[in-house]
Amino acid sequence: MTRIVPPYIVGEAVRSALRSDRGVCFDFTTDRYASNQAHDGLGRSVSVVKIEGKGTTQFLNAKFSQSVPAKDRSFAYKTAYLTPKGRVNDVLLVVATPDENGLVNEAFLVTSPGNSGSTLYDQLSPFVFPMDQVKLIDCSPSNESIQTTVITLACSKIHDARTSFNKNVVLDVLAEAGNKPFEDFELPSLGECIHFKAGTDDSTDLFILQHTFLPQESCRGYTIILQEDLSNPNPLADRVWDNLTAEDNDKGPVGLGALEFESLRVESGSPGFGTEYTGDGSKKSEDGFDQQESSSSNYHAKANPMELHLGNLIDIEKGCYQGQEGIAAVLKNKRGPARQLYQVAFYDSENDFDGSSSGFGMLTIDNDKLAGFQEIAKNAATIENDTRQPRAGDKLYVLGSNESIEVGRITSASEPNGSGDAKTLALALVKRPGPILKAITEQNLDLPMWWEDEDDGEDPTERNLGSRREDAGSGILKPPPLDQLHNLEVVIGGSYTVGRLLAVPSRRYEYKSNGDVASLLDYEKLGRVVNTEEGGSPGYFQYNFDDRAEDDTSIIEVQDDDMLDEEMSTIEEEAERAAAEMEAALEEVKRKEEKMKMLKAKAEAAMAKRQKKQEGTKPVDDEAEAQRKEEKMARLKAQAEAAMARRRKKHS
């Protein structure tokens, strides 16, 4: 089905639904709104792998970065699946139900949207050994006996999501399917999971948890996981979805597809599978060049959790797990991770996209600093307009540096104007701020003005998802975000496309739930405001990090690329060595296990042989012993008689 509605109208409709008590819904098993405009060829379906066996807890702890929580009821948590080098393969949702003794003997692994099919199962199954005492079951659509469906309902506020879920799922569908009293049904809180049987014959397993596959800055809501027999002619999953999106359900949620989910993901600053989650990326080709450099569409982020702001998914206190050495190499670096994830906003008001697929067409440029620059490019007869939409792999440079100060690379780009506003959003991995800020100062360029509104020049009444704004003209200066390069103006290499770096929503300044401004005291421990002038600008915020912009022996020089490459090479070597050691350890464990089995078999055979020998020779031994004693008694009797004869002869 081809979508003919402009992206900005769709984006605004989606966000209006999110802010209401209707919400939006996704089917992460099937894209029910598939379009020939598939974004970068990425689907947004998930896959599910089931783990069974008494070694489930140990398997989860050994393979993934987060520890299994000790709970006596069903629970859900997120964990990272890392490469041996500590890079993110994927972020998984783990759903588990302990038995009556509190032991986890069964768990489900749900991948991130986009990691569909049997990829996860194929990656894990070669590393399951008999001593693990677990069994993996592929619950992807290729499974011919069980159908697994994952459906999510979300709103911008949790109480709206609860209202919509109870109204459109619990009362109308679950009660009918299970014939159970759901009037007093309580939805789970964050981290909890409800598991029960549904259907007239209790043939359907149903899990409900508070999760949306998107950050809370974007939306809150509930996910339902259904497992039912494919032979069921009227699957409960289809009835749930049909009820949610029925045309006559004017209070139901709006059903979304892959394009809409991707726009929400990028807008919320959430990394995704295949874009930021790329594991170790491509391998070296035969000619020695990295395949990721050959095409921007093949760019591999090769990011670790700290670079993606996913440090909360790692339990640094627990024992060995895959990727531990790679994570340790990053954590022991005093300067922190080499890159950080930022959001990049490319405003139509600052870019002439020639009325291409923006959805808004030509808009007047209202940024004086950029207007002259782009006017020259438009009017010069020999210069073509190289302003274009961003794409993964594009390099970013500081605006005005003549591409001498590289900032980072774009990893994801959403649909133009898909957020409902005249802008295109992207995600980028950006280098450490210290060298960039120092180079900006040395070239007398403008430092990032964090106090400016990131949507300066846009509609002042606009509201971002999941955030509240202070009324215009309040005079309240917002504290700075957690990332120093917030609001830095950048340009895509080899083009005229300009944008601004923004700290991802989870790291921007937030307002309290009652609308009050959070205390500036909360930020004092992070650093201080410097370069302030009376009656002038408020300066910029300097953090207490080793790579701050002031002169210090810990600062990296401007020519940071070589040092960064050397540092990354060292980390890679350590990670490769750790991976080799882990593989060797696994082989050693396997070899010892086989040797123990062989020794045990030999010992049992030897014992059986000895026992058989003893049982066969026992009668012969008894007979020989009796004969030996009889001969000894005869010899002693003869000796006694001879002695008595000598004595009689002597006396006579």
TrEMBL record:
Biased amino acid composition, Basic and acidic residues: 460-472, 613-634
GO biological process: iron-sulfur cluster assembly
Gene3D superfamilies assigned: Probable tRNA modification gtpase trme, domain 1
Transmembrane residue ranges: none
Stretch list, region Disordered: 270-301, 451-480, 600-652
InterPro entries from the UniProt entry: TrmE/GcvT-like (IPR027266), YgfZ/GcvT (IPR045179)
PANTHER family reported in the protein's UniProt record: TRANSFERASE CAF17, MITOCHONDRIAL-RELATED
Protein name per Swiss-Prot or TrEMBL: Aminomethyltransferase folate-binding domain-containing protein
Organism: Thalassiosira oceanica
